[in-house]
């Protein structure tokens, strides 16, 4: 796989859950359409970020035989109306069974729209769940309080989304997905637990890594790849487990950590470690798609919170 230049362009959340909505400055709130644009853009930015190990990017299809960058971009654009519908359904609502069931119905319609746009390829099924719940949480937690830091506001959105995820979808059919089979076989939580636990790989891993890399002066693309690698290094990625089992999980985790230990992909040693990670994943036909979805979620929350804080910046490590 040839190498191209980059083209990308902590605290737990449970203790930060407060009331469902804020009475903050309405100028810092986000409309349903704006939330949908932020979500769409997060999917686009994740897809375009290059290089990513064994994932679709500007170099090619990675470990995927049925996806390429153009397909990923069509999927992202096709999902914008779904994200807007999720925000609209959540505005003024409270987490509960009725909302959870309504959001699931919208999500299933969005999945059908995605499949039409991609001619049957699963580009963003996981992201519809992960990013879609965060859109719903952001519509409920619509403005920050004056005392909020970026970290506190992000964690509140994630915890509100988690509250929704903990309720049952009354119209759900028995799940026979690859993710469900992996969860049962390997006893891992997967995307469902990630959401129900308050998106720890967004709040405690992705966002801190992204902001730490920026603080060190990394280019934005380098910072985003570093955030992806941080997520990969600790995630039980059901996409990897489905394709390559425990050997794939070990390759993804240890390989990602080696890149970070070597100074990240901005360094010569880090890029050599990245290339080794990618070779190992491609040999196993393993794609870290779950980590990619969580990077998109990280980028969504990062963009949203920066917009809402109106320029107020507080360290994510506070």
Automatic annotation (TrEMBL):
One of its GO terms (molecular function) is glycosyltransferase activity. It is an enzyme of class 2 (transferase). Its EC number is 2.4.2.52. Signal peptide: none annotated. Keywords: ATP-binding, Glycosyltransferase, Nucleotide-binding, Transferase. It catalyses: 3'-dephospho-CoA + ATP = 2'-(5''-triphospho-alpha-D-ribosyl)-3'-dephospho-CoA + adenine. InterPro entries: CitG, TriPribosyl-deP-CoA_syn. GO terms for biological process: prosthetic group biosynthetic process. Belongs to the CitG/MdcB family. HAMAP family: MdcB. Involved in the formation of 2-(5''-phosphoribosyl)-3'-dephosphocoenzyme-A, the prosthetic group of the acyl-carrier protein of the malonate decarboxylase. This is Probable 2-(5''-triphosphoribosyl)-3'-dephosphocoenzyme-A synthase. It comes from Paraburkholderia guartelaensis.
